[in-house]
Amino acid sequence: MPALIRAAHVSKPRTPKIFTTPADAARAFYEAFEARDVEAMMATWAEDEEIVCVHPGGSRLVGYSAVRSGWEQVFAGEARLRFRVDEIVTIETVGLAMQSAVEHISTAGDDTERGAAMCTNVFLRTPLGWRLVMHHASPAAAKPASDVRGPLH
Amino acid sequence: MPALIRAAHVSKPRTPKIFTTPADAARAFYEAFEARDVEAMMATWAEDEEIVCVHPGGSRLVGYSAVRSGWEQVFAGEARLRFRVDEIVTIETVGLAMQSAVEHISTAGDDTERGAAMCTNVFLRTPLGWRLVMHHASPAAAKPASDVRGPLH
After folding, report:
1. Which residues in chain A touch residue B33, judged by CB atoms under 8 angstroms apart?
2. Which residues contact A14 (CB under 8 A, 6 or more apart)?
């Protein structure tokens, strides 16, 4: 039914990508972050009210529209960032996957590391492929890893 | 076979609890935290090298022995803490579950809130019931939630 297909295409100018693995969704997440592309970023998230995003400043955003507004603010106000993600630990089951990693952050055009963040990403397998349901990033410790005592616990 | 049961009991003085839901494991985690009981704490974690614990100070510990050492340090050095956990968001599948929450932290005997942390817990269904594979806690923002820009991104 070409007419129906065309109508769907008109109402949704960018067909959402299907991420067949959590790693594909993670790659698209960081590409969208570097490109400061809100549409591409939100295409990596599940369209759900139970999604959660914690930015390094400590704010927690819950639900699709709050998470979207958060990225709009981040992309509007910040320098263009580059991410190198390493020390990746993953746990994957048939329906949900967890990725823990260290994000090394620099500014585009300057390779000096601006800082590092500890990051937990959780992906859900949806009918539209793997999508983010949680991104929790917090500043990495400047002190040695052996001293685990923070200001709270 | 009572002899076998007795032998197993001798070699493992505390039979590990079977947590039949992620919420049961989460409850036991905070009870162990408040009691500063390393054995009870580690009984809530999967015995796995892929487990990850990020304390609010920003250190990331990977693997069972590193995670255990981290809790030993936290419990040795700190005041006895009390947790009130709210704003819980959960996503649960058959094998893995995610819990995002806000931890309100006070010191035992003093109800004044000492601080709050954003917390992500991930639980895996193992042959021994639901166990933690990830705990990521970071200080909550003092600023309003509408300003999501942190020092990193």
Report:
1. 153
2. A39, A43
